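Researcher: Let's continue the batch. This sequence belongs to Thiamine diphosphokinase, and it's 215 residues. Same format as the previous ones, please.
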Amino acid sequence: MRDKVLLFINGDHPKTLPDPDQYSLIACTDGAFHYLKQLGFPLDKLDFISGDFDSHSGSDESVYQDKFILTLDQDKTDFHKALEIILEKGFTEIDVFGGSGGEQDHFLGNLTVAYAFKDKMNLKFYDEFSEYYFVPNNFKRKGVKNKMISLYPFPSVENITTTGLNWPLTNGSLSITSRIGTRNFAVEDEVSIQYESGDLLFFVGTNEIEYPSIY
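Model: Same format as before. Here are the structure tokens for Thiamine diphosphokinase:
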């Protein structure tokens, strides 16, 4: 994972902290700084803390002020501004924790930011339940048998064909306004996805499932 970035943002904090030694750069937004402190994350390993600092407080944190990057542009979220900084530093492989949970408008906003950067960076989100990211139009993922798989069009996907799923698609279409592909599951170790046009979010569950639930 060297040459990869670990980025914490201000959603639900991870239940298990990733190994910081596997990353070349580690950053967080100002809101995430607080939960990292509470979780006992080694704050000295942070390369920078960015944001408008509307979520920041605590005089005992002054020791880390040399790592603060103030970003006041209110037309962009703290997540967006952190990605701009990371891109300027030359990194394109980013693991994001804290992208979901909390207020749902933040979650939807984070997906929109990820969409804006999808052609510049490889962003992967991790939370308690799943790993999710935008996938190219010819994609394969191994090691997923018996895991929940969701396909979410952003906002639509045309001529999509899948293999390895319990409910496969063959030259189908997905749309946020009509048909989406959530709550499927893998029946093979490898899942493949091909589609002609559009943009697709791919979710893979963290754990294997015994009794798939579809809703």
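Researcher: Any comment?
Model: The mean pLDDT is 90.
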